[in-house]
Amino acid sequence: MSYIRINKHYIHTPYLMLGLVEFLLLGLAAWLAIQFQQFVVTGSLASVWVEEKWLTVLAFGVILSCCTLSMGVYMAMVREGFASMVLRTVVSFFLLGSLALFLLNLLIGNGFIPQRLVFWGVLFATVGVLLTRSIFLRLVDIDDLKRRVVILGSGERALRLLRDLAPETRALSVKVVGCVSSGSEQTRVSPASMMDTPSDWLSFVKDNHISEVVIAPDERRRRDGASFPLEELINCKLAGVPATDVLTFYERELGKVDVSLLTPGWMLFSDGFKHSRRRDFAKRVLDLSIATVFLLVLWPLMLLTALAVALESGRPVLYHQERVGLNGKVFRIYKFRSMRKDAEKGGKAVWAQKNDNRITRVGAFIRNTRLDELPQLWNVLRGNMSFVGPRPERPEFVDELKEHIPFYDMRHKVKPGLMGWAQLKYPYGASVEDARQKLQYDLYYTKNHSLLMDLLIMIQTVEIILLGKGVH
Fold it and tell me: Which structural domains are found in the chain, ordered by start?
């Protein structure tokens, strides 16, 4: 199995193993830095455990691992290439990591993480991690290390699955061997992707070293199983080759729920969409804690932002809108005003566009840096919003989108958030089609959200803020 599921969130095993190896390397880098520093000063080696420096080593590894996740290094190195991975690693270690370690040392005091340790530790860590990732890149490109998958179906569903998988091919731990036609459906995939219909499925999966069969036919399967190789696929399953429906495969490999394939039955009977009082309580405590800390730390920045808005375009500096929240309840959201006062003449809601000419110069800056979102900390404290969840939409747009997109209301089964899974996975949306694409990720979050997933989203959102992604 090339994936595991933690708190209902799928994590691909190769990247999990890489993360664990790197965590050990980071600890080793901190240990070597301590030894090097001690040798330079005293001419003798240090005993990490006697000097109780193991907490320093642990903190070093945890912080740099979080910085790696926050800059999206793992996905960038297989999608954007080695050079992009090196750049992101340098930024995450030398900029974010060094700053975080410096602040942690100030907070704890007593030389918990000396600055010489930070410099040499980050340097040793960078060398070791880059070597490890270069080896990993070569390994993930070896097809023999990937699970070999065959798709049962050759119509629209199979074609859409192949297209959606194509941009993610290097990042995934699966390889699609080909497609097998199901029944009398019209073939839409390319002839190069087609495989002959096997007369014996068990022999077929063994001869082709198939690890999984993805069920993606266009036609509905009759209850009696006609034209569907049920018994043969059961034999494959008993031999260790499972069959997976296309929706579950989408969810596991791409982190989204394909709305075009979604059925009420799948939503009702699949694992997920569960209520947990413990999770809700823990999430509320986390929201209140982070919002309070942010307000205490960032209020000078909020004051400067308000002054900048007022000096450029006058009052009001705050802007409010009605948004749809948990279970469809409408609430008022607050932002620093980034557009002209007459941005929506006549009060008619208008989608934001790329390079929108209604945005002021100060507005462009605070949008790029997400400073305009800071007043929403008040919404988090009040309980209208959470830190993580689907971004809340305006009631006018919700009414429109519900007419065109099935199951759109399902995203309102969790609290909206300042940041979300869709914002990590899909660029800024300003149309019905964009909303449809983002809904697929919102539904994945609604179905599988957990405290662990929230923490991962918060860490990875740092990349979105630093690189200014998804800003219009």
Answer: 3-140 (no CATH), 143-254 (3.40.50.720), 277-467 (no CATH)
